[in-house]
């Protein structure tokens, strides 16, 4: 188990966690007892458990004992949501499964249809001249208090209010000093619309259409790989030949369990391979990183006709950089939901963030959902005494009233986890009536847009964690894991390339809208994984983590494009 021991150390370090010897020994003991062979699988399971039940705490022997009881001694993992659904309440109101969704039937097409919106939204709001007087603010409870049948949810969170590390820079990126050297007055926000498709009925799953899209994607990415790697000829996946040849297909798993080096399959397209699949042997590939749904070109041999013995994997089909990008100058603040603690609905972290933004006035504030988290205990217990739309309007006012006279443009990106959104990915923009703020822009998930010459791609969905659960890589893969996971989004030209999507309500009919058609200057991928700002070729990837984490506050990101380059940091709220 010496190899596993070393792999555990590396896997934890990639997540930003340093463990001592007793903790490491306990990890190895659990792996041996429950036949966990992959260090990354164990660490990914621990990280998900820690974030959901321990507020992101680092592993200790005591925590690992609890982790073992909860995760490994049970025959199957229980669904927390189903547990909450079984709770009996005398007040049956506005349940998460009976969400009020104020969206017209064809709204999802309007969100993405490039013919309905020509791709440009005018941002011409100017900051009026006036004397700014500091406003005194009472407690957050007085400022924001949703209607509720439970008085406890409007009380302040003691763990959050007693924090002592507010404003601490936990991750400096290059020069951590954040300043703005340009005052935007008039400019346009250019929304890059994804290809419009004629879907007459919302969420009408058409199996033939889904198969056609999956097949076309293999051919499209395959053609890009052939051109990039100068491949003259490719053969069907089941082509039998003792000499090396090239073929193209989608990575799949031969069983319902997690992908591993022995269960990998390669699924070919109908045009090239008649839709056939073949077992893929990765044992002789020096360097690989694959996951289910990934489109790859494989060089290998097939002597028996039943197994493709791979020699090399080609997978980088990254789009070209935006040729019109001017790289700023631009200052922006990025935060991801949830925006309130699990024991309160006062939205204290969001209030504190808006106070900072109002003072600093960045050019752009990007907020990704969920704004009303469907997994919040208050929502699951049916304790709200107002509709989700009414609560969302309050949240929008909380954000926009302090900023409506500022130069800051505000982008709010929807999430399928929002109570007032459609439970589907890609997700249309959040519905909002009777609120008109000139500097507010509601965008779908995912979105690509441009501001001040800087192109930005953003999603609210935790694709990094989802891929991280399924991805396997060769031993000693040199690239750090978080950069590798982020790179998959670019290399597959898709915000959600994982197939099948077991952790998100992906509708194959709408996956045209999840295409990443350009390489953005900034790619925002919020995740429960450790916060980071990383440089990929031609792109800066940002994970601000969560503004609220359980009972405590989380982090947010700040970036600044200037004439001399890019700097930024991750800061505790």
From TrEMBL:
Keywords from the named record: DNA replication, Nucleus
Name of the protein: DNA polymerase alpha subunit B
Function: Accessory subunit of the DNA polymerase alpha complex (also known as the alpha DNA polymerase-primase complex) which plays an essential role in the initiation of DNA synthesis.
Keyword Hydrolase found: no
Span of domain DNA polymerase alpha subunit B N-terminal: 7-74
Segments of skewed composition (Polar residues): 137-146
Region ranges (Disordered): 122-146
Subcellular locations according to the entry: Nucleus
Family classification: Belongs to the DNA polymerase alpha subunit B family.
GO terms, molecular function: DNA binding
Domain DNA polymerase alpha/delta/epsilon subunit B, residue spans: 333-534
UniProt record, GO biological process: DNA replication initiation
Residue ranges of every copy of the DNA polymerase alpha subunit B OB domain listed in the record: 215-314
Domain of life: Eukaryota
An annotated GO cellular component: alpha DNA polymerase:primase complex
Principal location listed in the UniProt entry: nucleus
